[in-house]
Each structure stands twice: as structure tokens, then as C-alpha cells.
Recover the amino acids of this structure.
């Protein structure tokens, strides 16, 4: 998260350069900048995949055979010709015309803008789905401006960012420069945490996947990663379909998929308005539905929706203007209708939809009676990048086992998250796995739960061995997460005390290096502690490897119980309130640390004041 924040700050700087150096509007210059980010990110993935290919590359006369486009397509990656590689563009001479370059059509390249346009054309030639999608307006900018932009994006932050990077950055631009546009169609960028949770619970393997509000394609990217990680080829196993009303976003989706080596059919514009069109004729045909549709959309034409079909439970409430005033249950009905008899759906929805009344309630009752509602998860505030609203994750499964057909698993995760900063929360990788483990146990997949506990132990053992701390290794080997947590807390406390003593004792020149040494060691133990605490959390609740209701967290409810609650699908109505848990912070110890920090800062302040006074006296003032 630090890397992406740093990158965003530099993007803001680059946008200022564009604004100062061109006459384009904010919407017009978003895409050229995103094109450069696409090039940089594509190059990062290209180098990574190239290294994998070269590992086992056959040699001829002592040299590995050159890589080819087919090698990359086999690994679901985008091949970049030399002239389309970011490194090549960054290192072009200041006077591009003097280099004697020619473009793909054999014409001379006389500017950096022409070279970047040529790179885009070369990439489009490699990928049919990108034809006509990439920006090619770089001659609108001066070579000096483009060179500066290329330099700004040539940093390692992009190498470390995973997931829907293009969507995240695009939303950053919208939130900074066009907040009206960003809010018009709801939140289209789905946070990585929510996408991963949806994909992990649906477990896509093979078949047709539709996202009929696909935005920048994060669902496709994460699904592709999931399938590839399972040892399959995503493009062979899956068929990706997307609908996106905003053409700009659809272009981003195609760029995002291409950079991850994925192919798909994405439709945009009026024909892709899901309220009125099944653009791919997929009703009843989908193995997987994933989506984050815009919440609480109003003024949807009821007659057009009705004539377009996909409403097995009827229309939601219609006002006197023959409009659906809240489209949440249109989306929910569409998601159900797209599924085939074994299909699964996972989607993000406004929290209010779990308990809304009127026709919504009637639709919800009919939906629950089908037995397809599988899992409901409440998500807390601040998961969205530009919105603070809470939401819910809904999961349908048309092929639930008989044992759970008349049951729904409710999980209230509103108080389970990691704080990134003041305005943003997320689920850590371990937290994602823990929530997923509850679903495994509900489905009777106990072997997956056991494997996760072993993964915790293996990770902690490896980390403890690397830290060369016998006490930690002993604690891990004793198979007790509680003991590991205690040992790590003791280790942290000792490290912080040692850091204080050693930094105070160090000379002025060495203080920073000594502090950095301890900061690195402390961060290492803190990461171990975070994992150990999540392992303890999971083991203490479900250590026997059998699903059980946990007060304040999860509840398995029957259809009869749901009927008693007025057909509510709000997890909080079922799970109850958890007892207050110890946050693990030693209050006295933390207050002592704060007091020591304050004294240290006061001492530094006094030293600085003395230095300033001395300098002023020496100046005779």
C-alpha cells in the first residue's frame, strides 16, 4: 500500500505537468497518462515472465534460444516487441529524429510522441482485442513533456503493485480531477480485498464468467490469477464476457486484461447497458457471475427492463413515472437469471439491500426459497477507495449440496479488517484466508481448513528459523499459536527496549543506521506476530476443524429462521454481538513507550534550540 500511495503522488505530479503543457481537459488527458502506465506495467510483467521462460530455455551454442510471442501467450502474458518496451522508450536519445528510426509502416519517426504512438500500434498488432483501444495521441505533447512523464513512471513502485492497478489509478484520476464523473455511475473500481474474497469463495475452475458491470476488469484479472495458480491456463479454462456502459472504462478493461495476458469479449456503450440489454445472450448460460454494480441507481425505465427479460421474480417497485426508483434488485435478479443449473454468483451490493422492504422483500423471499442463496458477508466502512459506505457480499450457488440447500451462512466481518490508513481498510492475505476457511467448513471441505492451519505453522517455522531465534522456533514447534503470540510479543518488547538503548548510545552519525537496523528487525517480528495472531484467531474459533456458529461472527441459519426474521439477509440480525476481545496492547507498556518518545523529542527540541541560539550569537544578531 505504501508503494501505490507513493505512485499516486507522482501521478498527481504528472497530471499537473500535462495540465500545464497541454490544452486537454482532465478527461482527455487521463487516457494518455494511463496509456503510459499500461506500457510500464506491461513491461514489468513482460520482464517477469521472460525470466520464467529463460529459466528452462533450451540453448544453442551456449546461448538460450530467443523468446517468442508464442512463449508469452502460453503463459497468459502479453508479448512486447523491442520498440514497445518501456525501457527502450525511456532510453531514446533527446533528439529522436536523429536516431534514424522508422515505425511499423516503415515511415521515419521524428519525435518521441511518434515513437510512443508506434509502441501502442505494435502492441495492438499483438492483441486483437486491443485493436483501436490504446491511446495514440502522444504527438499532442512536446518531447520534453513526454520524456518527463516516462521518467516519472519509470519507478519500482509499479513492479510491486498487484491486482487491478489500472483501475485503481484510473479512479485516482477521476477522484482528483473529475469527481462529478467519478460519482455519476457509482464506484466502478472494486477494492482488491473484495475481489479476492469473491473469487476465493466462488473458486472458478472452468466455464463462462460474466461481469455485466465490469468497469476496469478487476474480476477478470483476479479470476485469471486464481485459475493460473491452480495449474491451469485461464484463457483455455475460462471464457470471459463483460458489459460496461461507459466506453472509457471498457477500454481500460481491455488494457487491464491484455497486460495480464487474458482474452475476453467486452461490449460497451448503449448495447451494454445491463438494465436494458443482455449483450452476450447469456441468460441461463453462465458458470460464474461476478460484479460490483453501481448501488441505488434510480430512474430506470420499468417497461424497458420488463421487455428485456431476466426478471424471474418480477419487477421491483415502480413509481408513477413508470421508473424503478432503486435498481438494486434489478441487478440481483439479473445475476440469478444469468446462472446455469450449476452456476455460482458473487457480487458487491449496498448494505441496505439485505433488508429493504416492499417489492424488494418479495423478490428476496422468492430468491431465498429457491435455495440458491449461499453466503452473506457484511463488510465495514472504508473499504472503497473513494467512498466510506459499508456494503455486503452476496453469494449464490445453484448447485448447493443437499446438506446445506435450505441453509444460508451469515458472516459479519464489519469489525474484522486491517487499517491501511485513516480512510482505508482492507483484509490482509491471512484475513482473506480465515474468512474463506469459515466457508470451507460450512461446505464440509475440512481438508482445506487443515491445510490452512498447516500453512500458518510452516510460515511461522520458516520465519522463526530465518530470525535465528530458538525461543520462537521452540514455541512454533510446540504447535500452540497462543504460545507463539506470547513469545513474539516478548521479542518485540525486548527489541524496542534494546533499540532505545542502542540508539541513545550511538554517536550522532550512527543514530540513523542503528535505528534503521532495529526498525527492520521490529518490522520482521511484527509481520510474524500479525500472522500468528490470525492463526490463533482461526484456531481458537474452529480448531476442531468442524463448523460452529461463533457469536458476533458467523451463523448458519435455516430458511425457517430467515422467515422468522422477515426474510432479512443482514448478517448482524443472526450472528449476535461478540464479547469484547482484548486488543493485545499492553496499556502500561504502550504509555511508557509514548512517554519515552516524548522525552526524546523534547531533548531533540532543546538541542535544536541551543544550536539555533548559538548560530544567532555567532552571527552577532
Amino acid at each position: 500500500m505504501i508503494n501505490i500511495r507513493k505512485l499516486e503522488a507522482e501521478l498527481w505530479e504528472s497530471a499537473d505537468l500535462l495540465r500545464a503543457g497541454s490544452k486537454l481537459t482532465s478527461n482527455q488527458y487521463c487516457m494518455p497518462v494511463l496509456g503510459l502506465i499500461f506500457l510500464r506495467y506491461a513491461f514489468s510483467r513482460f520482464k517477469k515472465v521472460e525470466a520464467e521462460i529463460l529459466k528452462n530455455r533450451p540453448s544453442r551454442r551456449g546461448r538460450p534460444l530467443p523468446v517468442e510471442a508464442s512463449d508469452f501467450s502460453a503463459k497468459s502474458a502479453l508479448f512486447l516487441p523491442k520498440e514497445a518496451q518501456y525501457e527502450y522508450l525511456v532510453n531514446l536519445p533527446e533528439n529522436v529524429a536523429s536516431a534514424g528510426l522508422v515505425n511499423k509502416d516503415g515511415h521515419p519517426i521524428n519525435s518521441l510522441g511518434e515513437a510512443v504512438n508506434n509502441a501502442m500500434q505494435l502492441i495492438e498488432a499483438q492483441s486483437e482485442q486491443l485493436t483501436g483501444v490504446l491511446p495514440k495521441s502522444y504527438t499532442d505533447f512536446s518531447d520534453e513533456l513526454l520524456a518527463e512523464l516516462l521518467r516519472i513512471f519509470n519507478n519500482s513502485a509499479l513492479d510491486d503493485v498487484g491486482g487491478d492497478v489500472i483501475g485503481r489509478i484510473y479512479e485516482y484520476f477521476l477522484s482528483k480531477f473529475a469527481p462529478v464523473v467519478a460519482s455519476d455511475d457509482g464506484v466502478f473500481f472494486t477494492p482488491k480485498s473484495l475481489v479476492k474474497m469473491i473469487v476465493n469463495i466462488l473458486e472458478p475452475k472452468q466455464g463462462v464468467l460474466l461481469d455485466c458491470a465490469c468497469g476496469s476488469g478487476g474480476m477478470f484479472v483476479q479470476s485469471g490469477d486464481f485459475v493460473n495458480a491452480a495449474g491451469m491456463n485461464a484463457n483455455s479454462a475460462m471464457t470471459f464476457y463483460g458489459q460496461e456502459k461507459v466506453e472509457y472504462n471498457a477500454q481500460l478493461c481491455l488494457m487491464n486484461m491484455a497486460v495480464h495476458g487474458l482474452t475476453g469479449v467486452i461490449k460497451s456503450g448503449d448495447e451494454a447497458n445491463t438494465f436494458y440489454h443482455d449483450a452476450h445472450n447469456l441468460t441461463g448460460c453462465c458458470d460464474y457471475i461476478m460484479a460490483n454494480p453501481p448501488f441505488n441507481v434510480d430512474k430506470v425505465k420499468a417497461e424497458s427492463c420488463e421487455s428485456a427479460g431476466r426478471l424471474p421474480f418480477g419487477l421491483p417497485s415502480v413509481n408513477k413515472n413508470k421508473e424503478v426508483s432503486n435498481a438494486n434488485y434489478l441487478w440481483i435478479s439479473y445475476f440469478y437469471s444469468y446462472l446455469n443449473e450449476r452456476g455460482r454468483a458473487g457480487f458487491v451490493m449496498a448494505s441496505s439491500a439485505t433488508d429493504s422492504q416492499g417489492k424488494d422483500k418479495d423478490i428476496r423471499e422468492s430468491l431465498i426459497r429457491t435455495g440458491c442463496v449461499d453466503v452473506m458477508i457484511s463488510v465495514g466502512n472504508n473499504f472503497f477507495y473513494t467512498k466510506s459506505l459499508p456494503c455486503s457480499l452476496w453469494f449464490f450457488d445453484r448447485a448447493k449440496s443437499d446438506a446445506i440447500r435450505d441453509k444460508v451462512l451469515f458472516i459479519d466481518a464489519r469489525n474484522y479488517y486491517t487499517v491501511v490508513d485513516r480512510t482505508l481498510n482492507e483484509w490482509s492475505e491471512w484475513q482473506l484466508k480465515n474468512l474463506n476457511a469459515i466457508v470451507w467448513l460450512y461446505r464440509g471441505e475440512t481438508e482445506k481448513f487443515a491445510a490452512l492451519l498447516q500453512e500458518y505453522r510452516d510460515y511461522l517455522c520458516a520465519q522463526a528459523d530465518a530470525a535465528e531465534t530458538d525461543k520462537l522456533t521452540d514455541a512454533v514447534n510446540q504447535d500452540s499459536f497462543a504460545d507463539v503470540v506470547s513469545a513474539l510479543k516478548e521479542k518485540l518488547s525486548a527489541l524496542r527496549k534494546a533499540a532505545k538503548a542502542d540508539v541513545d548510545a550511538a554517536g550522532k552519525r550512527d543514530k540513523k543506521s542503528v535505528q534503521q537496523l532495529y526498525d527492520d528487525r521490529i518490522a520482521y517480528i511484527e509481520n510474524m506476530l500479525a500472522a500468528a495472531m490470525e492463526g490463533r484467531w482461526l484456531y481458537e474459533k474452529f480448531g476442531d476443524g468442524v463448523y460452529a456458529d461463533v457469536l458476533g461472527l458467523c451463523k448458519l441459519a435455516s430458511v425457517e429462521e430467515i422467515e422468522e426474521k422477515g426474510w432479512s439477509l443482514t448478517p448482524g440480525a443472526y450472528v449476535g454481538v461478540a464479547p469484547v476481545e482484548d486488543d493485545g496492547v499492553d496499556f502500561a507498556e504502550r504509555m511508557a513507550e509514548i512517554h519515552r518518545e516524548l522525552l526524546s523529542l523534547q531533548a531533540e527540541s532543546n538541542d535544536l534550540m541551543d544550536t539555533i541560539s548559538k548560530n544567532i550569537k555567532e552571527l552577532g544578531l
In short: Residues 511-542 form the longest helix (32 residues).
